[in-house]
TrEMBL record:
InterPro entries: GerAC_N. Residues 33-208 form the Spore germination protein N-terminal domain. This is Spore germination protein N-terminal domain-containing protein. It comes from the Bacteria. PROSITE patterns: PROKAR_LIPOPROTEIN (PS51257). Pfam families: Spore_GerAC_N.
Amino acid sequence: MEKDKERQSIRTGVKLLFCLLVSGFVFLIACQAVEPEKRAYPQVIGIDWQKEEQRYTVWMHMASLAEDTGQRKQSAETQPGNELYFTGSDGAQIHTAYEATREQYLDIGHVKAVIFGTSLRENRERLREVLTGMESESSLGNSLCIFTTDSLSELSQAVEEQGISLGDFLTGLYENRTDSSAQAPVRLADLYRSCHTDTALPQIPGITVKDRVLMVEKK
């Protein structure tokens, strides 16, 4: 009888310890959570390679917090038209630059499209490096729409001047077409596949700016 009581006491102690550990873990997660209004939400990310400077340029077109998360509160950091720029020799340097200059947590879970500059797209080694880093970031997924442009700076300037919600514009070109002109977009997964199989890239739709008007040349 005493042994049975001892075993029961041990089982109870183990269960209690397990519950305490789980409760503590949940508490830690809750403490580490960042409120939506304290996050920055890129809607579109543009990346290019500067050959002469041997560094990457990253442009982030920020989303509207209310539109993309359903929150009423908005931060001046996340209004459409707020364009962020960073440069670095690799992803770690760019991330460090963001952390040193922005107080908000960078949440890339709402990115809708990625735009590769021509210089990066034509440099297979650098593009592979970028794609490898992107593929390791699970929150990006692999269904993002892919585009290319000759000049990220010209594109970002036009977007900022017109106050365009670029992510909605680019994805809407495909999602809002139901007639015979509808085409399937090039997805990030398509570029991953080309990278893994060492085959030619798919024909990526190009974005141009003419008289401050954005035009997308579909494949």
